[in-house]
Structure formats: structure tokens, C-alpha cells
Amino acid sequence: MLNLGMTEIFCFAVIALLVLGPDKLPEAARFVAKWYGKIKKFINNIQNEIDRELRLSEFREEMQKEIDKITELERRMQQQLDALKNTQTSSEVEEAKTETKAPIIYTLFSQQTTIPFSLEYQKQLPFKPEPKLPTQQFDTELKIAV
């Protein structure tokens, strides 16, 4: 830090011994060492704060670059979605014009009947239901959430 060699330190010690005397020399050495430690800690704290601020500013710049990239990607994705919506709406309109749907017909049962949910379910029942309708194999099962 100060670039002092052994000979310079020895010269300072001899001058301090002559000026202060042997009684006050230990007290002066403690005082100088104490202030040297305080100054060194202060300088280290300032260096650490400067390094931290530099890292923080670099981090902010990187974050801003990433945010810019994300917004650019979002803009491109939105453009692609808009283009897809435009093509889908035009093709859906053409399909709706050409496609006609058959009407759904519901029939009302006048008698109380048992409609099988599935054959596995009927096998688990303690009694055997008497089907009034012919049992058919259904592709779908009715699931009820309780």
C-alpha cells in the first residue's frame, strides 16, 4: 500500500524513538496502528460498495436487454397469433357455409325405465335390474363427480 521497505520502516522507528522517547513510543505505536486499521477498513468498505454498484449496474443492463428480448418475442408471437386468427376465421366462415348440421332429436320416455350406465356398474349392484330396454354396449360411460 505505501511501498515501504525494511530500511525506511527502521528509519521511522529510530526517529520516533528519538522524538517521543521510550515512555511514549508504545502508546504512539498503538495510536498509529489503530488509525491505520480504521483507514484500511474505510477504504475496503468504499471499494466493496463501488464494486457492488458496478455489478448492480451491469445486472440492470443485462436485465433490460433480456426484457427487450422478451417484449420483442411477445410482439412477434402476437403477430403470428393474429395471422392465425385471420386465417382461421376465413376458413371457418367457408366451412360454415358449406357444412349443414343435422338437427338433434330428443325423445321423451313415458314409462320409468332403467338406462344402463355400463355393464360393469350393473354387475356390482346387489340386485339385478330388469332392463325394459334392450341392453346395448355403449362406447361412452357417464361419470358423475361427487
From TrEMBL:
Keywords: Cell membrane, Membrane, Protein transport, Translocation, Transmembrane, Transmembrane helix, Transport. The keyword Protein transport applies. GO terms for molecular function: protein transmembrane transporter activity. It comes from the Bacteria. One of its GO terms (cellular component) is TAT protein transport complex. The keyword Cell membrane applies. InterPro entries: TatA/B/E, TatB. Coiled coil: none annotated. It is a single-pass membrane protein. It is found in: Cell membrane; Membrane. GO terms for biological process: protein transport by the Tat complex. Belongs to the TatB family. PANTHER family: SEC-INDEPENDENT PROTEIN TRANSLOCASE PROTEIN TATA, CHLOROPLASTIC. The Tat system comprises two distinct complexes: a TatABC complex, containing multiple copies of TatA, TatB and TatC subunits, and a separate TatA complex, containing only TatA subunits. Substrates initially bind to the TatABC complex, which probably triggers association of the separate TatA complex to form the active translocon. Part of the twin-arginine translocation (Tat) system that transports large folded proteins containing a characteristic twin-arginine motif in their signal peptide across membranes. Together with TatC, TatB is part of a receptor directly interacting with Tat signal peptides. TatB may form an oligomeric binding site that transiently accommodates folded Tat precursor proteins before their translocation. This is Sec-independent protein translocase protein TatB.
